[in-house]
Automatic annotation (TrEMBL):
It is found in: Cytoplasm. It is an enzyme of class 3 (hydrolase). Belongs to the uracil-DNA glycosylase (UDG) superfamily. UNG family. This is Uracil-DNA glycosylase. The lineage of its organism: Bacteria, Pseudomonadati, Bacteroidota, Flavobacteriia, Flavobacteriales. Residues 49-211 form the Uracil-DNA glycosylase-like domain. Excises uracil residues from the DNA which can arise as a result of misincorporation of dUMP residues by DNA polymerase or due to deamination of cytosine. The gene is ung. Pfam families: UDG. GO terms for cellular component: cytoplasm. PROSITE patterns: U_DNA_GLYCOSYLASE (PS00130). It catalyses: Hydrolyzes single-stranded DNA or mismatched double-stranded DNA and polynucleotides, releasing free uracil. Keywords: Cytoplasm, DNA damage, DNA repair, Hydrolase. The active site is at D65 (proton acceptor).
């Protein structure tokens, strides 16, 4: 199977593309995109990998599903296209960066600038039907993205994993915590953040402190 994904990932993920579950997933996604409105655009499904090469990867942030409103999803978790209103979780992420690092609130919610610096913004499910949250869950995407997390854990060292909320925290079982740095907190969604589980986690400064301690370039959040 020929999947359009950055070459640096292909050598590690090619075995996944050849498994029966991935063949079935590909058929499902093709059918959905032909008959339904789905997000993100086809060419952006693997954008997280195209912007963050395997060699460059330093940080992993795990989301659940792409945004399912028009023009929002761009293939990176929590990120939206330029000029699009910031969803509530993204607003809370930027607010935490403001207090944690003293950086001004940004105009654009497009997180490609993070991905290009080595932040893998990985949704567990990479596609969704318009206006139907979770509509592409349990079709094979999670098997694939779990394999991605395991691959990163196995073949890289000193990666910072930011696990926000119950869903992401469960992924810790895929990570070798002896060789990587895992930070957990509540989810940035208003439901969790307003109950005190998000604000003040200082994940962005802690992440950079760790990278610095390993002589790695820090992220300009």
């Amino acid at each position: 199977m020929n999947v359009q994904i950055d070459e640096s990932w292909k050598q590690y993920l090619q075995p996944e593309f050849e498994k029966p579950y991935f063949e079935q997933l590909t058929e499902f996604v093709k059918q959905e995109y032909q008959t339904q409105t789905c997000y993100p655009k086809g060419k952006e499904i693997f954008a997280a990998f195209d912007h963050c090469t395997f060699e460059n990867l330093k940080v992993v942030i795990i989301g659940q599903d792409p945004y399912h409103g028009p023009n929002q999803a761009n293939g990176l978790c929590f990120s939206v296209h330029d000029e699009i209103a910031h969803p509530p979780s993204l607003i809370n992420i930027f607010k935490e960066i403001e207090t944690d690092l003293g950086k001004p609130y940004p105009k654009s919610g497009n997180l490609e600038r993070w991905a290009d610096q080595g932040v893998l913004l990985l949704n567990a499910t990479l596609t969704v039907r318009a206006h139907q949250a979770g509509s592409h869950q349990n079709k094979g995407w999670e098997t694939f993205t779990d394999a991605v997390i395991k691959t990163v854990s196995e073949h890289k060292n000193d990666v910072v994993f930011l696990l926000w909320g119950g869903f992401a925290k469960k992924k810790v079982k895929l990570i070798d915590t002896q060789k990587h740095h895992v930070l957990t907190s509540g989810h940035p969604s208003p439901l969790s953040a307003n109950r005190g589980y998000w604000f003040g986690n200082q994940h962005f400064s802690q992440c950079n402190t760790f990278l610095k301690s390993k002589d790695l370039e820090t992220i300009d959040w």
